[in-house]
Amino acid sequence: MNVVIFGPPGAGKGTQANFIVKKFKLCQVSTGDLLRNEVKNQTDIGKDIENIISKGDFATDEIVNELIKKIIIDPSKKNKLIFDGYPRSLNQAENLDQLLNESGQKIDFIFFLNVKKETIIKRIEKRKILENRSDDNHVTILKRYDTYMDTTKLVLDFYSKKTNFHEIDGDQKIAEISSKIEQILSV
Ligand code: AMP
Fold first, then answer.
1. Which residue among 36, 58, 64, 69 has the greatest number of ligand 1 atoms within 8 angstroms of its CB, and so is best to mutate?
2. Which residues contact 53 (CB under 8 A, 6 or more apart)?
3. Please, what is the average pLDDT of the chain?
């Protein structure tokens, strides 16, 4: 099965994606991690996006679509994908459907982790101490939240009409969210 998990920064996408990876033996595809990797390795893409990420803006659809494509066409990962942080725009959502379709796959489950802004600010401040990410400061958090909400509204509209869409209250405890997700995926 292929799963999309989406929600604002700090919603717990990475944590829940990790849980699903272990429980259901899927491969996590985090565009944030893929982009940070490009920056770390100082690739051509990495040099362009370093600034964008640290300001809390989005990388272009072209860049992320290209990174995603390499993974979707990998036969060893077929029907074992969990997308975390992708798609973030309508263009990316349409691109994902098309790429999966071209390789005989589809999205089986979509989870939207809905979280209050205050919860996110608290969580990201904690993560800043644990992971020391350059984009986890107070100003960038608010910017990233607003950018996310503005641009992903269209993704939410696109997905919420689908029958495999599940909205989950992301303000709950980690274990409660994992248990809801597990119930849905186990049917
Ligand atoms: P994340 O780890 O998912 O919070 O992503 C960290 C940062 O990477 C975001 O704030 C964006 O700058 C960039 N990013 C991650 N995924 C995407 C995406 N699908 N489209 C555009 N930019 C992205």
1. 58
2. 35, 36, 39, 59, 134, 135
3. 91
* Residue-wise pLDDT tens digits, 103-159: 999 999 999 999 988 888 888 778 777 777 777 777 777 888 888 888 888 999 999
| pTM of the full structure | 0.88
Secondary structure of residue 113 in the 3-state scheme:
strand
CATH assignment, 3-185: 3.40.50.300
Beta bridge partners of 167: 112
Q: How far is the CA of 11 from the centre of ligand 1 (A)?
A: 13
Sequence-ordered alpha helix ranges (H) in the chain: 13-24, 31-40, 44-55, 61-72, 90-102, 117-131, 138-160, 174-186
Domain ranges in the chain are: 3-185
Is the CB of 35 within 6 Å of ligand 1? Answer: yes
**Which residue has tokens 């209250």?**
169
> In the prediction, which pLDDT does 134 show?
72
Q: What is the largest CA-CA distance in the chain?
A: 44
Q: Which phi and psi angles does 127 have, rounded to 5°?
A: -65, -35
